[in-house]
Amino acid sequence: MSSWKKAAKANQKTHKERHQPESRKHLGLLEKKKDYKKRADDYHEKGETLKLLRKRTLDKNPDEFYFHMINSKTKDGVHHELEKEDEHTVEQIKLMQTQDIKYVNMKRTMESRRIEKLQAQLHMTDVADATPNTHIFFVDEGEEKNFDIAKRLDTHPSLINRKSNRPRLSDLNKISLPTVDEQVVKESRKMKQKTYKELSKRIEREKQLTVVQQKMELKRHLHDAKIMKPKRVQRATKVSAPVYKFQYMRKK
């Protein structure tokens, strides 16, 4: 019977809605039923939304608090989420996702040993001289104006700021300086600067590996603490691991 109804409708005339008359073409397109249906559905949907919001406003507890109140703000009528600082850098995320803690510990140990060798090779005399002296001399009243530091230390005035290799005047008279080629001095200076640059990079690398190792170790401890959840005291940053306070448990 249903197939007969479908066959009967095959030859029936298709209903077409009239178009906008020529005399009313300046008013735009004539609204069809499908256009009215979309407009009516949108109107009812907005009405239901306003009705729901009005109900929530009437039922709202004035003393209610949730953290999204302080984690977002409205600026010029537009709602914005407060952007939090990233806890990990891109390199730290890649390292924690692709490697384990043993690999990170091994690389950090290698970097620390290499730093010790470079520091022993350079003796860090330039860094020591860059730090200002804090030595205090006590003199009698009235002698501050005539006090000469170079004379008191028995050294040349150009060597006062040194903390190492500051010979006395009596020793300077006995020293015979050899003739040194300027080209050799320049190459030695360049090599020294290159070594200092490598040392600074390795120190920075060792710090980053230490932070990654601390974060991975803390993540493992948090995974093991299933019964008593620790309390986070300080959130993680790009240069430091998070700080958690674990509850004391008496061990037998």
From TrEMBL:
What Pfam families has UniProt attached to this entry?
A: Utp11
Extent of Basic residues compositional bias:
1-18
Using the UniProt annotation, give all residue ranges assigned to the region (Disordered). 1-41
| Keyword Nucleus applies | yes
Keywords from UniProt, A to Z, are: Nucleus, rRNA processing
Biased composition regions of type Basic and acidic residues, renumbered to the chain: 19-41
| Entry's family note | Belongs to the UTP11 family.
Protein name, per record: Probable U3 small nucleolar RNA-associated protein 11
Q: List the source organism.
A: Iphiclides podalirius
